[in-house]
Records
---
Amino acid sequence: MAFVGQTTFFEACSLQEPANGLIPRFFEFRAGADADALLAGLRDFVPHVVLVFRPEVVPEGLFAELPAATLGFLSEPLPRGADAHADLQRRLNELQEVDVANFDRIISFDPKIADTAAEVLSVWRSLPLPVADRFFAPVTPMGHPPRILFVGRSTQHREYLLAPAKLEHDVLHVAFGVSGLELVELLHRHDVAINLHNENYPSFENRVSMHLAAGHLVLSEQLDPQHGLEPGIDYLQVDSASELRRALGVVTRFPRVHHRVRVRGRLKAEQFRASRVYPRLIADLLGDLDAFGSSRT
Amino acid sequence: MSGPLRVAFVGRASEVGHAVPASPVDGLQASFIEHRAGFMPSRVLAHIAEHAPQVVVVFGVASLPAATVRAIDVPVLAWDVAPDTPPGFGHHPELPFSSSAYTAGQASRDDYARVIDRPLPVADELFAPPRRAASVPRALVIGHSSERVERMLVDSKHRHELLHVASGLSGETLRATLATGEVAINVRDEEGRGFGLRVALYLAAGLLLISERLHPPAGLRAGTDHLEIRTSADLVALLGRVRADPDEFTAVREAGRRAAEAFRASRVYPQLLAPLVTR
C-alpha cells in the first residue's frame, strides 16, 4: 500500500509498519512536485492500493494507467454553508482542481464537509485521519512544571488565543517543519498539548488524536465533529484565550488534577491507530470496488 | 580588578537566555532570574540578595516596575530588546501591556544607570564549529511569527526543509535545535529596520546566516559573513543554491563564525560592564 503526501503533515497519519497483510511505503509528494518521479516510484513499488492525502495536488490524468486501486483522502476543512470563512473558500477553490478520474474512491476526514465536497466529487466514506502506531505511548507522570506543546502553523486566530498562555507559561510552539521520528521524540518529551483551529471556524484537527495517542493532556477549542471524543472526559475544551491560560495555570499548579482525562483520552485514541484502521478500510475498499466497480476503470 | 565580574541578568530565558552564560566563563560570573510580565518582582530582589551581583542587567526597559529598579543598590542597566509578544497584540485584553495601570508603574529609560541598545551577546557554551551543509540542508527560524514573517517564509516552507519554532526554546533544547540545522534565517516581525534577537546566536552556532538587511550592521558584512535577502523569492532561490551546492557558501559560513567572536559573552560583558562597577 502506497501512501502519498507531504511528509511534514501526513506521514504521521500513515501506516509505517506491515499490518494485517498491508505492506506500506510513504511517498513524499506536494503541490508542484515532480509527478513523473512519483509515478516512477509507484511503478517500482507496484502497490495494490495508493492512498493520496490531499488528492487535489495530483496532476490531471496521472493515475489513469496506474494498475492499482486509488483512494483520495480529503484532509482540509471546507465551507459548511453560504457564509464561509475566506480560508475555507480558498481550500474549496483548491479542491476544485482535483481530477476525480484519478481516484476510485474519496474519503473525507469530516462528514460535515461531504455535502460541500459533493459539488466537486463524491465522498465514499468519512473518517478521521488515523495516527501512525509509533506515536502511541503510555501516559507517564506529568513533569514539574508540565511541558506544554503546540504544533501548528501560526495564524492570527491562534496567536491571539496563545498570547496570554505564552506569556505566563513556557509553551513550545513548533510552527513548521518537524516530522517523522523527530516529531515522535518531540511529543514524548511533553505532557500537555494544545489544539487550536486555523481560523475561527469549527473543525477536527488530526493533531488531537495524535496527542491523545502520545498520552498528552489535550486542551482544545471545541471540536466539530467530535469523532467520538468527549470534552471534559477525553480532553479539556478551552474556547478563549483566558480559558486556555487558566487551564494551563491549573495544570501547572496541580499536575495530577486531570490525570483521569489523560488516561481516558489515551484509551480513546486506540480508535485512530493506523494499524487498526487501514487494514479494515482497505478491505472495505477492495470489497466495494469488487462489488460496484469504479468509474476510473 | 580581582575575580570575575558578578552580574545578575533579568529576563525571559526563551527570549534572551542565549545571551547569558550558564556557568562561569573568563571574567564573568553570571546568574539568571526568569522574569516576565505578571511575575512577582520580589523574586528578582530575592535573587539579587542571594547572589550579591556587582551589576544587574534587565532585558527590556519596561520589564520591571520602576520601584523595583530603584530598590536595587548596585548599578542597573537595561538592555533594550523588543517586548516579548508577537507584533499586533499590544492591545490584547488578556495581556498586561494593555493595562494602563500596569504600564504606568513600569520602569522607563530614566530609571536605569544606562540603557544599552546593541545586539545581544551569545553565551560562550553556544559557540560551535561551522557546519557543512548536508545534502538536504535544514534551515532554522526561531522567533515569533507574524503576518510579515509568514509572508517571507511560506514559499520556502513549501519548497525546502525549514523548521520554525515560534516560542519556548531555551537551554539544552535550544542547543539541540541549533544542532539540527545548517542554515538560519533572520526576518523581521514588521516592516522597518532592525537587527534581530538571534543573529549573533546563529553565527556563533556555526550556521550559515541568511538575513534581511541588518540595521545597524554591528560589524557584519553582507556577502562576506552572511547572505542578504530582500524578498521571499530571494530566500527560496538562496536555499535552492545551498541545496544544489552545499560547499558554495563555506567561506561565508566560516567568516560568520569568526565574526561571532565579537559577540562572545565573556568578551562583551566585562568590557561593557566593568567600568560601571566600583569594587
---
Amino acid sequence: MFYSILTYEINDIMRFQKRNLVISVTICIILCIALTFAGCTSSTPAPVTTTPAPRSIVTTSLSTPIITAVPTTQAAPKTLIAFTAASLTGASDKIGPAFSNTSPGTTVKFNLDGTQVLKQQIEQGANADVFISASNTYTNGLKSEGYLINSTVKNLTSNYIIVIIPAGNPGNIQSLADLGTPGKRIAMGTPEVPVGVNTRQVINKLTNSTYNKTWQENLNKNLKTLETTEPGVVTKVTLGEVDAGFVYESSYKAAKEGTLSAITIPVKDNVLQIYTIGILNRTADKVAAQNFEDFMLSAAGQKILSDFGFRPSGS
Amino acid sequence: MTPNFRISKSLALAVAVISIGLVAAYLALPILALFFHSNPEMFISSLMEPKVTDALVLSLTTSTIAMIIIVIVGTPAAYFHSRLDYPGKSIVDILIDLPLVLPPAVAGLALLLMYGRMGMFGQYLHLFGIDIAFTIIAVIMAQIFVASPFYLRQAKALFGQLDPTYEQTARSLGASPLFVFATIVLPLTFEGLLSGLVMTFARALGEFGATIMVAGNLPGVTQTMPLAIYGAMQGDFDVAITISILLVLISFGIMAIISILTKRRGLLA
C-alpha cells in the first residue's frame, strides 16, 4: 500500500516534469555552460592579476612608505603564515612563541609539509607570507617564477642525512652495509621530497665510494615505504615498523633519549642540505614578515634551530 | 484557487530547475576541469608510464580481492545477522556502519597499531615471520575495512526485507538450508547484492587515507591509484590528472552499472 502511494506520487511528479522537461533541461544546459565559461574566464586571469599586484606594492614600498598602514594594523593582532619544511615541525613549536615574545601582537602559523608540497600550494595560489624551504631547487624554482621577493631569500640552516634505527634494533642493523642485506625493512623519502632527493644522492655516493651495485639493488628491494615528508620517515622508524630510515641528522639529535639510535654517513659521502627562508611577493605585511625572517636569522632563532639539531647554514 | 495553484506550480518548477542545475553544475564542473586540463596525447603518453600502469593493476587487483573476501565472509554474516536475534545485535549494527563515518586516517592508524610489526596482534605474527604492514595484504585489509559497509548494509537490508515464509516453506518441503539460500534467497536479492558489491568495489578503489598509513607508499607494491595521484601531485602533474581521469571514468562506469541494475529492479532499489 505504501508503495502504491509512492508510485502514484512519483508518476504525478514525472508527468509534471515531462511536460516541462525540455525547458528545464535547456535552462540547465545554459546554466552549466554559463557557469563553465564564468569559471574559465575568472580563473584564468586571476593568478595573472594577483601575482603582479603584490609585486608592485613591493617595489614602491622600497622607495615610498606605502606601508603607512603598518602603524594602524600594529594595534590589531597580526598573524603571519609561514610555509615551512616539515623537518622543522619540532622546532616550529618553539619558534612560534619565541617570535611572539620578541614581536608582541604577531603570531606565526606554520603550514608544515614536504617542501615540494608547499611549492605546489604556493603555485596554486595559497596564502602565505614566508617560505622556509629544505631545498634550493624548489626555492630557485619559486624565485624564477616570481613568487618570492628574491632579495629576501637567505640561507637559514643546514642538515646532513643520517640513518636512524628504532629502539631495540629489531632488524639487527650494525652498519650501512647491513642496509643492503636482503630482508631488512627500510623507509625513505619519495624522489620529490628534499630528504628523499638527498638520500638518493647519498646512496649513489656510497655505492661508488664504498659499496657496489648489488648493495644498492638490495637496499632498493628492502624499501617498504616512500614517505612524502621527513617526519613521516621518522615516525615509521620510531614505531619500529621498519628497521631503518634515511632522515635528517636533526631528527636524530632532537629525538627523545633512548628512542632511536643512528648510523652516521661519512661527510665525504654525505650531502649538506641548505635550508632557505624568504618572503613571498603576495605577503600582506612585508614588515612583519621581515621581522620574522630577521628573528629566524638572529642568534635567538639560530639557537632554537641548533637546539633541534640543525647546523648553521655556513657549515 | 486555480491561478494560485498555477503560480505555485511554476514557482516550484523554477526552484526545481535552479536547484537541480546548481547541484549538477557544482558536481560536474570540477570533474570537467580535469578533462579540460588534459588532452588525448598527454593522457595516452602518461597512461604508458609504469607508475600509472602499476597503480592501475595494483588497484584493480587489490579491490577485486577485497570485494571477493567481503562477499564470502559478508554474505553469510549479513544473512544470519538479519535472520537471528542475538545479544549485542545493535552493537554489531553500529560496528558495520562505523567505517562509513570514521575518517579513513583513523582506520589506518588503528590497523597499524593492530597488525603492525609492533602492533597488538602483529607482534605475534611477526614471531612467525609474518609481516602485514607495508605489504599488499595491508592494502587489501585497509580496503576491506573501509569498503565493507557498502555491501554489508545492502545485504542486511535485502535479507531483512525478504519474507521468511518462502524459506520456511522450502525448508518444510525438505530442502537443505544451502539449497534454499541458492535457489530462493539469492535469486530474489541478487541484483541488489550486486549493486552493493559494485559500490564496495568502487569504495575500495578510491581508498586513500587508511592505505597510506598502514600500507605505506611504494610504487608497484602498495601505491594504489589514489596514492599515485597524491604522489604525482608533488612531481608530475600530468600523471596526477591522467590517473584522476581514469578513476573518474571507472567510477562513472560503476555508477552506470548500478543505475542499470537498480532500474531493472524498480522501486525496491
